[in-house]
Amino acid sequence: MNVDGAEDGGWELDPEDDAQATVEAVGRQLKLWREAAGLRPAEFGAAVGYGENLIYKIERGVRIPRPEFLDKADEVLDAGGKIAAMKKDVERARYPKRIRDLTRWESEVVELGAYGNHNLHGLLQTKEYAHALFEMRRPAYSPDKVEREVGARMARQSIFARTPAPALMFVQEEVTLRRPIGGTMVLRQQLEHLLEVGKLRNVEIQVMPTNLDDHAGMGGEIEILKFGDGSVVGRPDDPFSSRLISGPKETRILELRYGIIRAQALTPRESLAFIEKVLGET
Hints:
With 282 residues, this protein is of the alpha/beta class. The protein is built from twelve helices and seven strands. It has a five-stranded mixed sheet with strand order 5-4-3-6-7. Helix 2 (41-48) crosses helix 3 (52-60) and helix 7 packs antiparallel against helix 8. The radius of gyration is 22 Å and the shape is elongated.
């Protein structure tokens, strides 16, 4: 049995998250079902295989129950699928609000262009690479938060399976291909993944060589999202905000800068060859 259930039973929830009301409502329903079954929290916890402390947290709405927890609770409380059905209500809440917003934007884009200079873009990362990135954050993330962030990042990669497929373009600094985030084996797997993704018909990956003396990307990372209605928005290089820039003047500047960056970088074909070369050296 997991004493606290922190790793197996649920995820932490930011009290300022707008999903708080949903998680609290699910917790109240679970408590009503438990009490109707005549079970104390400790007894219910023992029956579902989790600690009493976790039961209290989920019922108070301070912890997001995992899908498997709700399935087990449905079985133990003989709820006939009513508790298991609440998985849909908490599915989105399991990811941080800024990631839910970003996923929504990415689900609607017809074209996405990004330039990265410190690490590989989130849509290109393997699970191991993303895990290593989040583990090195300062101030340090809790293991639970690392898991939530990695899960959210991996979920965003469903964009590659969208139909019709959006055009996805990435320009990565050479250093992001060489920095051994997570160690040599993680980097090798990451480079192999890049080669696979780069062969998709709707994806273009370009490498920006380090030895250029003229570089339009010195202002930091860039991301441009274009939608079916013709609107264009940009995401600024700001780790503390998920806001989008939508003003014509600002987006035009970002598009201009990104266009020059793409022109300065290696072509997609040259870039895949370059990635293969780096892989061979790693």
